[in-house]
Amino acid sequence: MAGLFHDVRLASAGWLAALLLVPLVVVAARASLARESAWRRVAGVVLRTSAVALLALALCSPVVDRPNHPSWTALLVDQSTSLSPEAPRQAKTFVEEVLSQTTPDRVVVVPFLAQPASPAEGKWPELPQTDSNGTNLSAAFDAVSSIPGPFGPERVVLLSDGNATTSGDILTSAAALQTPVDTVPLAARTGPDAWIEAVAAPSQVRPGESVPVEVTVKATADCQATVRITSQGEEVASKQVAVPAGQLAVSFDLTLRNAPRDLYRVALEANPDTEAADNWAELAVWHEAPARALLVGRETNRFSQFARALEQVPFECETITPDRFPKDLEELSQYDLVVLADVPATDLAPGRLEMIDTYVRDRAGGLLVFGGSDSLTAGHCRGTPLENALPVTCEFDAQAKHPSLAMVLVIDQSGSMEEGGAIGLAKTALRQTVEMLDAQDQLGVIAFQDTTQWIVPLQPCNDKQKVFREIDTLQAGGGTNMHPAIVKAHLALHEAYADLKHILVLTDGISYPGDFDTLASEVAASGITISTVAVGSEAAEPLLQSIAELGGGNYHHCTSAAEVPEIFVRETAKAARMGICDEPSRPQVAPALADLAKLPEEKPPTLLGYVQTKARPGAEVGMTSESGDPLVAWWQHGRGRSAAFTSDLHGDWTRPWQTWSGLNTLWTALARQTVRPAGIGGYRLTCRREADTTLVILDAVPYPGRFENAAHVVLEISSPGGPKQQTTMPLVAPGQYAVQLSTPEPDTYDFQATCTVAGRPVFTGRCSACPSYSAELPPRTTNQTLLRHLAQATGGRYNPSPTELFPADEPPSLETRGLWPYPLLAALILFLAELALRHLVRVQPVGG
After folding, report:
1. Of 282, 304, 307, which is closest to residue 293 (Cα–Cα)?
2. Does the structural domain 73-190+780-805 have CATH classification 3.40.50.410?
3. What pLDDT digit, counting tens, does each position of 654-667 carry?
4. Burial class of residue 584 in the structure, from the number of CB atoms within 10 Å of its CB (0-12 exposed, 13-18 middle, 19+ buried)
5. Among 63, 64, 142, 416, which is 20 to 30 Å from 466 by CA?
């Protein structure tokens, strides 16, 4: 008790002056209690003066200095495999020296691995007999917070090599203790070693595709090594490599074996090598559904052999004509490869060419275009969005020799052609046609109304200015009598000498009657082709279509006369076979194609023709003609790839190729080169296993800049030996869904994600989390950077000695506690008692 009072002191002793008021209180009390009995007067005075005295004492702020609560220190001791053999002895010595500096109740030792063990008070603990293949520093700090007791530790000491194998915010966990953290570095395990650091491979591959596998091998010193890959106990690939000190990437191309999933084991044999337990890894590759190919062509029967070759890869092939081409990008994106065979740009409805370009560039779709007399340069592809997606430009050498052409343009000059400026646009079209021809070509212009006349007699195009002047005389007026005009054109061309002969008819009305079918058949029989152009809605479309069909030409319908010049240009180019090389050419195989396709030693046969194009900068050219024109080319266009074969598909030009043994090999190689790879459709399922947990992630980005945030994702989990389970994957970031799962078994876990948007399935993907060796096994250096940063950030010390934790001359820790509430409470009680004495006891009158 004396000691207690000895430690009491008044923080504000000046308030003791209030005790001078006690005599006044006594006098006042006697006066107010004068009519009370003697014992009540004495009691009242005592109560009132005592209350005043206690109140004065409370105002003096009495405090007492008492020994603080017993302080203690937590020692976190790393016991993981990554430590050197000497490190555990070093840690034990440190702990024992600390224990010798203080009493046992002031030290708690917490050994930890992947998870902390039970704390031991004041002694070196029994080491846990659990798996030591892991280091979780965050969990170790969290364990300190859960140690029972009224007070937390005064200090935490971490003994570790600083190499955490489990992710977590170490600094946040340490700071949450709100106490200094000292760090003591322990030596990490070292020595000559080689190990498999990582194995990378796609989670899904289509049947027939190769499986690219990259094995990263690390070594502490130069060594010779063999990397082997086995599947179901059978070796499928191996390589001998020289691994330098550091790391080396070893690449393999494997073939899928066992549907629906292939399991591979990668093993490393190295010399020198200290630790064999880190020389293996496993990976799983799922078989995806075959790629879907859309084959588009006017003559779908030409795809027969090509489709059979693709189905062997395998592909799922669908063959359509251009008029059935998908109407929107979403429908087109359901296919992984689009093949166009001799399809002119004009055969595809408006907007389809832009859609194909977007499909390749943004949706990673594949595009393969075959040539033909109506494709590429000869198919009016120049300047279109389709050309943008191709590895070649639709250009040809205007100076190159081409067949001579004799062409007669039969122009309606009836009065209705004056409406909408049709006759003026016809003149423009005629001028552009003349510009395209050269001196070896012949051109004639016949105008018809009720009568027929030569505006430009059939003649060589060696004086174009004269022809222009004659065209300018064309005037509109009269009726529409087309039959005699075609007869006159037929007779003139029949007498002309030229390699190619063509009639082009333009009208906007209904002609006088005539036997047009017989006339068109006779024209075609004489080796002359007829094409027709209808302008506006009043033209006799069925008649003009029939003439073009019987005459072996093309029918065009223009809703506006403004379209006429472009159609004339295209018809002239087609009639003159501009951009087409009909001369036999022996293909030259370039190294790029030899690397792409395993063609037979037999050289490709002669091609009888092809479409002239020019290779784009950056395109790979796999085959050229004798004159250097590209025959086979491919390139990367945005996210997707496209290829062009400028000859035809099973047509007249490739007739000698039908017996070539390398034909199907070439077709399938081009299809594989351009098809959208598995898992590159804007949705991708991946997983990352770490210790006994696995993070499964679905990236949902249908195309660049478009994040799918409204999907419903269901994940099916197949665990080793257990039932299948399902869970949903929440949205965790724009276009990303993820869930973390417990995967404690040392076996393979399989995952299948099904993604739906607005009730429509858009993606199904699969991946697997395979077991691996502990990240503790490869040699490391002590992470002094982390340990120093932990100490600095929490106000602790780096590498303190045991004597610094509990120094012998350390002054006792005192705690100051205020005592003023106690006298204040006593004063209040006495004051209430004095009130009760006066008012609850009956007052007796004086002398009564």
Report:
1. 307
2. yes
3. 999 988 989 999 99
4. middle
5. 416
Q: Are 628 and 613 in contact (CB under 8 A)?
A: no
Report the distance separating Cα 500 and Cα 577, nearest Å: 9
Does this model's pTM top 0.70?
Answer: no
For the chain, residues classed under CATH 3.40.50.880 are 291-398+601-674
Interval 577-634: pLDDT, tens: 777 888 889 999 998 888 888 888 888 999 999 988 999 999 999 999 988 999 999 9
- Using pLDDT thresholds of 50, 70 and 90, give the confidence band for residue 1: very low
Are 157 and 76 contacting, i.e. CB atoms less than 8 angstroms apart? Answer: yes
Query: Following DSSP, what letter does each residue of 354-413 receive, concatenated?
Result: HHHHHHHHTT--EEEEE--TTSGGGGT-TTSHHHHHSSEE----TTS----EEEEEEEE-
Question: What is the CATH superfamily name and number for domain 405-576?
Answer: von Willebrand factor, type A domain (3.40.50.410)
Assigned CATH topology for domain 683-769: Immunoglobulin-like (2.60.40)
536: Cβ contacts below 8 Å, ≥ 6 apart? 420, 422, 508, 558, 559, 561
CATH number of the domain at 194-287, please?
A: 2.60.40.10
d(CA 581, CA 403): 10
Q: Which fold has domain 291-398+601-674?
A: Rossmann fold (3.40.50)
Give the long-range contacts of residues 104-109, CB within 8 A, separation 24 or more: 105/70, 105/72, 106/70, 106/71, 106/72, 106/73, 106/806, 107/72, 107/73, 107/75, 108/72, 108/73, 108/74, 108/75, 108/147, 108/153, 109/75, 109/77
Strands in 61-193 per DSSP E: 62-67, 73-78, 107-112, 120-121, 155-160, 181-185
Q: Strand 280-287 to strand 234-243: parallel, antiparallel, or no bridges (unpaired)?
A: unpaired
| 715 and 752 Cβ atoms separated by less than 8 Å | yes
Q: Report the distance separating Cα 778 and Cα 776, nearest Å.
A: 6
Q: Which residues contact 600 (CB under 8 A, 6 or more apart)?
A: 661, 662, 665
Cα–Cα distance for residue pair 481/463, rounded to 1 Å: 30
Q: Any bridge partners for residue 262, and if so which?
A: 285
Nearest by Cα to 178 from 141, 138, 140? 141
